[in-house]
Amino acid sequence: MSGRAPVRYDYEKDPAAIYRQSFAIVRAEADLERIPAELHPAAIRLIHACGMPGVIADLAWSDGVAAKVAAALRGGAPVFTDVRMVAEGIIASRLPAQNPVRCLLNDPRTPDLAARLGTTRSAAAVDLWREELAGAVVVIGNAPTALFHLLERIGEGFPQPAAILGFPVGFVGAAESKEALIANPFAIPYLALRGRHGGSAMAAAALNALAGGVPEEAPR
Amino acid sequence: MSGRAPVRYDYEKDPAAIYRQSFAIVRAEADLERIPAELHPAAIRLIHACGMPGVIADLAWSDGVAAKVAAALRGGAPVFTDVRMVAEGIIASRLPAQNPVRCLLNDPRTPDLAARLGTTRSAAAVDLWREELAGAVVVIGNAPTALFHLLERIGEGFPQPAAILGFPVGFVGAAESKEALIANPFAIPYLALRGRHGGSAMAAAALNALAGGVPEEAPR
According to the UniProt record, what class of enzyme is this (chains A, B) (predicted)? Predict the structure, then answer.
């Protein structure tokens, strides 16, 4: 069996200090020059979520997206996510109007709908957003199919969300779905990370930043 | 207002085909030579989770960790996670014994415990694992403090888990906590990603792979 003796590590235990040090390192290492000031919180939280200062070289946005998201949330807009992990990463206390955060992936209607449409459950769940989609904030952290399907449905007449945050990750369709968002012909405001990088943690980080900035940087 | 006209994108909609293509790209781009065969599923799922074939250069493991995790799970071991996002990323249907997946971060006892211990809630929640920790599988996807605290508690006499998967992400303590795990004096089996990379998606991916491989690669 293994040995057993007390071990002690020297590490920061104060949550406020951890956040401050962490965001200070991010600011020191990140090249924020290219990015408008109102998106600095998003850039900082994105780097914080993945540990890679260089990742924001792939950040893409439409003019004014930060203000659009903030206004929608202040107005009580719901937040739709493609997967539960994104919903779990959203800091509820940072949402300004107790905005509902909805993920319909595990809705009982979703599997049948996916089979009928011949697509993924993530994409099918988008059809269940319709009633509340007008002015909502959409956060996609995983499924390219959900993002493609949403854009197609909007083209067919689904209501327009206030903004779409596009962060699918991976090798099949992720980069392409984000390029489709960036090129969307509906003038829907967007924030997206080009290429293969992304994921639920980054998607949630982007929403958290647009909802409430980086308040953890302030000494308390 | 925006223009509205149907758009159609050419993208793969079949979930099985998406997985197959995705894992085929990962295998083509990943350098698996250094990694023992029983950890190839973990390496492949880790890359799939973050979109970065190079990430496995930082993978570290103890001999036999895959078999230890598989045996513990077959025996019904619970899975403990530091954050809800990891728990959400674990594919329940892949667990061999309907293993419970527990995250105590939001337990009502955790905030008081954190205040009393002078540490983060993530670390304090570890104290609530004690009764079921013997032989459990621990998956840390976010908090270095949780990993440090767990190792310290084991040194003080907490029961030993069957294995620890260490994937904290970020700039303050993440790399150090994983080095502490790799150097743990208790001979606890581990799988970890050195450096700043990690996160809940990768942590869940590692557990999913050790629990059930990469069955999505098989044509169906």
Answer: isomerase
